[in-house]
Amino acid sequence: MKGFEIGSHVGEKSLDHRDFWPLYKVCEELGAVLFIHPWDMHMWDGRLSKYWMPWLVGMPSETAQAICSVLMGNVLVEFPRLRFCFAHGGGSYPIISGRVAHGYRVRPDLCATNCGTAPDQLNNLIWTDSLVHDPTALDLLIATIGKEHVVLGTDYPFPLGELEVGKVVEDYKSFDSNDKERLLWGNAVQMLKLDENSLYSVSF
């Protein structure tokens, strides 16, 4: 087993809660990937009850909150070999990454309480999928975490999934063929620590 999926929180406990650290320690030792998918967005009522906003706005926000918890909760400093992969291109985190880093520096009394490393210095330790629906958003994601840490995402079989799998990557004009191969499958091989040669072997 190369990894498994968990939610973005458990009850009132975000991903930085120390109750989860034994899990992180075992995952780091085993080399298992933790894929984080948002859920239970707490935004079902009021102004966000219309227009499918829990999914369109709530899920990206929930994912960004989960990433911030991991980065500012000292998780990746304590477990530097642990691989988190966040769904939907990291949600809204790429667009707020600069804001989060700025907040960490100007209000350390509120933001730097658990981690002495600024969040933007840890961005290249997280992974995300590529499901952003827009080449411009993919450009921002790559600038935030690096093109080596983006793997193909589909969100299949849900309506917000990519209708043509890999189309955003294929349409990304700044990529050469090698870059496209990395995002379409090569990065996932690295993230999951698969034997690339075995992928070409078929037994009958």
Query: So, CATH architecture?
Result: Alpha-Beta Barrel
Strand coverage percent = 5-15%
Q: Helix and strand succession?
A: EEEHEHHEHHEHEHH
Overall pLDDT metric: 92
Taking strands numbered 1, 2, ... along the chain, how are they ordered across the largest sheet?
1-4-5-6-7
| Class inferred from helices and paired strands | alpha/beta
Largest sheet: 5 strands, parallel
Q: What is the number of strand segments?
A: 7
Q: Poorly predicted ranges (pLDDT <50, ≥5 residues)?
A: none
Helix content: 40-55%
> How would you name the CATH homologous superfamily?
Metal-dependent hydrolases
CATH topology-level fold name: TIM Barrel
Per CATH, the class reads Alpha Beta
Overall structural domain count: 1
Oligomeric state of the chains in view: single chain
Distance between the termini: 23 Å
Could you describe the 3D structure shown?
With 204 residues, this protein is an alpha/beta fold. The protein has a single domain (3-195), classed as TIM Barrel, CATH 3.20.20. Helix content is 40%, strand content 11%. It is built from eight helices and seven strands; from the N terminus they run βββαβααβααβαβαα. α2 (53-72) packs across α4 (93-106). It is globular and about 45 Å long. The mean pLDDT is 92.
